[in-house]
Amino acid sequence: MSLESGEPSEEVPDLGPVPQRLAVDVETVRRLVADQFPQWAHLSLTPTRTPGWDNVTFRLADEMLVRLPSAAEYALAVEKEQRWLPELARHLPTLIPAPLARGLPGAGYPFHWSIFGWLPGEPAARSALADPIGIAEDVGDFVEALRRVDATGGPQPGVHNWFRGGTLRTYDATARGALAELEEHIDVDLAAAAWDDALEARWNGVDVWFHGDLAPGNLLVERGRLAAVIDFGTCGVGDPSCDLAVAWTLLDLPGRQLLRERLAVDASTWARGRGWALWKTLRNLANAVEDRDERSEAEARLIVEAILEDHGTST
């Protein structure tokens, strides 16, 4: 595969409309488990505290998790996770979800779904890291090991992962739309310059494994260190710079510096990683401003400021 995000003639995938999400209740999941996996029908089933967006999740007893895609587009990841997670787990220093069973449509639910083993830890929080440098080291170890896994035959960017690992130009309209909405709230000229810089940064075209969404909520922390990495729905092979977004969405400046050094990230890859962090945070900030969500707005502002400061010191 060869994608160079600096090529203006590059074909830009169409993300399509926002998926229509399904509501999934406990009784539906209870019927699915009882019908397809009767050996687990007697176990307790409860919604998780954070059920998720792409997938609705339920805890099955203490040892398992039921994960059901909330839309047809998200269901495309089920087969990929079932196929690749056991293979990836053999090479990674951190726990990742282990598929225990694959469910079929039924009980009025239309998609394939999965049962995974339950993993320890609580979602990381940018403002509450007990050991920021330790987390940066752990994330670096995880990403480094993932990148070393043989990418042959791995899933290429596509609808199954919202084109993570492909060109940043896929999100150009989203980023520029958010900038237009934030005209009175941030330095949009500086943010646009950072975005343009990311678009012009070239990739060498060598496929590498990536997670695709190393957001704080997908990093589980226990006793101050990284305990597990979850939600591989956006994983694939391609340009791995999307995994660098975590440098700004979770880590502080010393952590960012450590991560960059640990992974030996060149300037072009770092700029693309900065772009992956920027487009999503701009969209989150615009949504928070519109919804008058002061807490989310403050968090997004801190991330945008860190991104723009980094861009300023890199030019």
User: Which sequence of strands runs across the widest sheet?
Assistant: 1-2-3-5-4
What is the mean pLDDT? Answer: 95
Helix content: 40-55%
Here the CATH topology of the largest domain equals Aminoglycoside 3'-phosphotransferase, Chain: A, domain 2
Main sheet?
A: 5 strands, antiparallel
Task: Write the CATH architecture name of the largest domain.
Answer: Alpha-Beta Complex
What is the tally of beta strands? 10
Relative strand content:
5-15%
Contiguous low-pLDDT stretches (5 residues minimum) are 1-9
Task: Map the helices and strands.
Elements: H1 26-36, E1 45-47, E2 55-60, E3 64-69, H2 72-75, H3 77-89, E4 99-103, E5 113-117, E6 122-123, H4 132-148, H5 172-181, H6 188-200, E7 208-210, E8 219-222, E9 225-229, E10 236-238, H7 246-249, H8 253-263, H9 267-291, H10 294-314
Antiparallel strand pairs: 1-2, 2-3, 3-5, 4-5, 6-8, 7-10, 8-9
Tags for this model:
Aminoglycoside 3'-phosphotransferase, Chain: A, domain 2; 41% helix; alpha+beta; 2 domains; 10 strands; three-stranded antiparallel beta sheet; Phosphorylase Kinase, domain 1; 10 helices; 315 residues; single chain; five-stranded antiparallel beta sheet
Plain-language structure description:
There is one protein chain. This protein has 315 residues and is an alpha+beta fold. It folds into two domains: 93 residues, Phosphorylase Kinase, domain 1; 192 residues, Aminoglycoside phosphotransferase (APH), C-terminal lobe (Aminoglycoside 3'-phosphotransferase, Chain: A, domain 2), CATH 3.90.1200.10. It is 41% helix and 13% strand. The strands form three sheets. The chain has a five-stranded antiparallel β-sheet with strand order 1-2-3-5-4, with helices on both faces. It has a three-stranded antiparallel β-sheet with strand order 6-8-9, covered by helices on one side. A hairpin with a 7-residue loop joins strand 1 and strand 2. Helix 5 packs antiparallel against helix 6. The chain is globular and about 60 Å long. The two termini are 29 Å apart. The N terminus is likely disordered.
